[in-house]
Q: What sequence folds into this?
């Protein structure tokens, strides 16, 4: 069986397919899955470029989708031939958050999905959305479920709500699609007019080039008639948070996802207080939330935007494409 | 000024336009509104046919929409020329339910909107949805807000949820439209194949003629693969509740709205308990919920289904049409 | 190892200790527990008297508490010597309800705890509350967690809320204690002045003998100054529900637990609707809810009321005592 | 009628009782209230020391309690002789937050309660808790309701939860009392061992002198066995927030109230994200929340801690005492 593992020292140049022992047959409660697709996340990039030295030797990639080829005893939820997709937190099945680190996340604390076959507990997967191919299915695990959790689980999004999205990365584009599927109104920012044009084609109601309009927080609020956005999906972090607080309505909700502008920084806490706003930290979501998300996707209204697809053996090139920042939506890996 | 009032004894034959004193100019915090449309509800029919003898002399109709023609001092939310729509509970502005009767509901405990002009506190209205005419706007007050409250406020509806609707009355058709606008999956029942066909044309995913399939609770559950519906909008009451409990999923939600089959009856409480389901009584909603609903409608995705329109002077005929049960959606009154 | 199993046909006379094979050592993820205590529930009585003929040969009793005597590989939450207590739904770990039957409940669908030793997954237990003996700990599993779920999980109980309890069975007495621990105000009914006196000694603020005052729903509402109770813990079922609806406030919450007066009956659904009240079916709760309940009990403010204690070999007599209805609080089984 | 108004320029030295016109009789929906007590908040200190120059001429003090001496037409909630207490946001009656500034807060944007009589809408008051004198009642309006909102409304506090409080100011001491009334476990910090000793006497389970133990965030988490606090009442602001994030559990809740250490500062946003924690900004609460809080206080379990009482004419001295920081609980003003 072929797999990719992180070399020592870690480096994109060392991401090469190598032979690995076959994982064998599934034990009780387990599945054997023939993997066929993954997508890249900012988190994967961090691991693959050595931000986590303890990952030496680990198989990278948090997202994985493929076909069930064998089913262990006691498994009733899946059958041979089912298309399945992995869970970012295989131990977080249900309920309020239980995890605050990546020690059990595939491709970080444990082996990920840059390989041909895995044998894992059935509870580490959900069904894939109907009519999604492996790359599309893989895209739901990290970026998709993050956007779903931010808007739907934490935000209780409803039709008519105003959603502000920062940039056109994987989470933001998923959030755009989810928000439009549920009747919300969406504003989105980017430094690229071309990307904003694409977002508008996907239903964005208001677009803003933050290079042109640096006081974008106020601009968004003005666009809402002074009321402010109900939800902000904050993928930027400290560098954008002050303006997100400016843009959100009194009593509004900011999903804190991002570390793109750093892990720490100046935050106007008094403004957050007087806005009576909620700043909700989150990392992806539970398996049960993924099951609900899959039901929503089974409706067929949306599919992830796949920027491009690389074969597994060109994983390093795919990461380089991610680093370039020129993509729109998800970068797929397919095998 | 012309108006219709309930005669003594109350009877449809006595619903005639008569001259009434003009309400004059608005005082502080009030609006003067030139009314142009209403729609009929089951509740209005009850009042108009004498189920509430204390209503003698009252102006009927809970729904009212029209144009602001004068604004009292201190009113900042509305301006002359704004299109507005009335609130079913003018005293319930916000927050959890405060009212358990109709003593302050227009057309029941207080005068309703079967008249040309009213002067009322601004807090008794919200803006009308953009691009709705007066009849369409009036349709949101009672039936629309009831459906919104059931699914969105109480039910926290999300894309992918399964919604079961009973019949094709005003609340059910609104619920169908709201559910589809938010990406949900909808099953609907009727005794008319023709009405089911229309519902299917509006996006219903599964239709069921309960005259053909009397064990419809089980049929719905089978259709969901045994899981059951997430939400049931129960407009039937005791005569249908047992099957609604059969149809709902474990932990699901039944909105109890209906008295169509009576005010009391046999209920399998043990089945409700073991389903761990919620049976949530509700009557319409608060003004703030109506404001949120209007924002959702401003998106332009849906408009109420108006079965037909009667002029105000033919209100009695309109009620007779309602009694016939042949309508689909709302019966409008226009003047 | 000694155990009690349900004979064939099932009957209290056949509940006798017999020799059973020892369960052996724990496998991966499992615990071996030396059991020392249980308590009786209405549900257990139903099983033990043959309401569920399929239970022939089953070890009865849903509640079980004891000491960990061996720990399987991979178990980190428990250590040898820990006092633990069983879970009513060993498969419902967390999140919204997943189960609507008793097919996996100990003492019903699977073997229960009327035995000396068990080997089960660690996830079928939680830690016992500090300073609780085995009988006291066992009392939390069914009756205690039901009361906690009704008031705290579903009801979001807060200080100052008014709670109405029906009768002085195990759930009601737990609910009384939980409500008082959290600063709520409690009304309780009974047919026995002596039991009401005991409830008053435990902090009940208002007591009512329903044999003396048959219109108790109205009496409770009058006592609240007409506002009504925030929460009703409905252990009676259809025979009491009409008055519970009368007693609850607009927008209030009725926990539907009981089948004491039957599985089905006449319910005034229109009254529930116009009260805008929630009738929430429930069966016990999840393991995570039990963990939160244990944390609350670790504070040491309350302990279950144990009416009396029977040795395991006198289980039949304990059930007869339960049938007599003379107990107050829980009937313990100790070995 | 006597009153105190802010001079020009604003300064504590200019806070002197002066004669003002009597407010006269109440109009429709209004109350005339004879005021007898107030308490000082950090917010009042800011106004009184000129942080808000626009307040020149304004009557200070956000908290006010006294006796109803006349009732306008249409008021049914209050009668002459009732003890009442003011609302921090007289226009925020119910529901989710509506206000993000102090433009309608007594003693800031509008006249406050440093006077003998007021005539105001009945909706600007609630009943005072039973058996509270005027100073005790006044203490609930700002500090008390803030603590209640943080823990009970936003936090859904339950017995067994772990609450971390920073310092022994008015909000923290109220939070300590509310948390203990509802069965929670409390840790509290201070720089004064004497104050910690007093907090322990009021039920605090764990006390920590942050001058001695500067890494207090970790210390609190260690004390919880590594799990972390469920709720942190963050009155410090940016200077303490990093350690509060360290102390909170995964999925926990931090109420952001404080500006004591500044309006903006370095915040470890990535740590908040990976804790999946909620940072909830808030300012006091709605009138309906105050009504619920009063019901909780009517139980009689707790009364505010009044550090000392000054007569109204010594208001300047009372503010100087507040600035010294030596108080524990609330500083009362009585007349």
A:
């Amino acid at each position: 069986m072929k797999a990719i593992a992180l070399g020592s020292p870690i480096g994109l140049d060392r991401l090469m397919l190598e032979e690995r022992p076959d994982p064998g047959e599934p034990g009780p409660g387990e599945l054997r899955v023939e993997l066929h697709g993954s997508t890249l996340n900012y988190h994967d990039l961090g691991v693959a470029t050595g931000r986590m030295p303890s990952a030496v030797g680990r198989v990278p990639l948090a997202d994985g989708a493929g076909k069930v080829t064998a089913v262990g005893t006691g498994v009733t939820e899946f059958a041979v031939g089912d298309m399945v997709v992995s869970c970012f937190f295989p131990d977080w099945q249900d309920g309020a958050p239980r995890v605050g680190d990546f020690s059990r996340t595939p491709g970080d604390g444990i082996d990920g999905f840059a390989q041909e076959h895995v044998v894992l507990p059935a509870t580490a997967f959900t069904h894939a959305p109907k009519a999604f191919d492996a790359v599309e299915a893989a895209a739901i695990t990290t970026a998709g479920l993050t956007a779903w959790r931010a808007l739907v689980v934490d935000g209780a999004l409803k039709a008519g709500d105003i959603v502000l999205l920062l940039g056109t990365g994987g989470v933001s584009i998923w959030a755009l699609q989810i928000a439009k599927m549920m009747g919300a109104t969406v504003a989105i920012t980017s430094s690229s007019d071309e990307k904003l044009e694409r977002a508008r084609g996907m239903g964005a109601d208001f677009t803003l080039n933050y290079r042109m309009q640096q006081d974008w927080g106020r601009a968004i609020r003005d666009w809402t008639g002074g009321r402010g956005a109900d939800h902000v999906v904050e993928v930027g972090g400290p560098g954008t948070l002050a303006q997100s607080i400016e843009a959100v309505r009194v009593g509004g909700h900011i999903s804190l996802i991002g570390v793109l502008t750093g892990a720490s920084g100046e935050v106007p806490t008094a403004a957050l207080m007087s806005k009576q706003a909620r700043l909700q930290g989150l990392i992806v979501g539970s398996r049960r939330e993924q099951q609900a998300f899959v039901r929503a996707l089974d409706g067929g209204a949306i599919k992830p935007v796949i920027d491009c697809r690389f074969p597994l053996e060109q994983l390093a090139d795919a990461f380089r494409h991610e680093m370039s920042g020129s993509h729109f939506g998800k970068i797929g890996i397919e095998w």
Summary: Residues 242 and 267 of chain A are 6 Å apart (CA to CA).
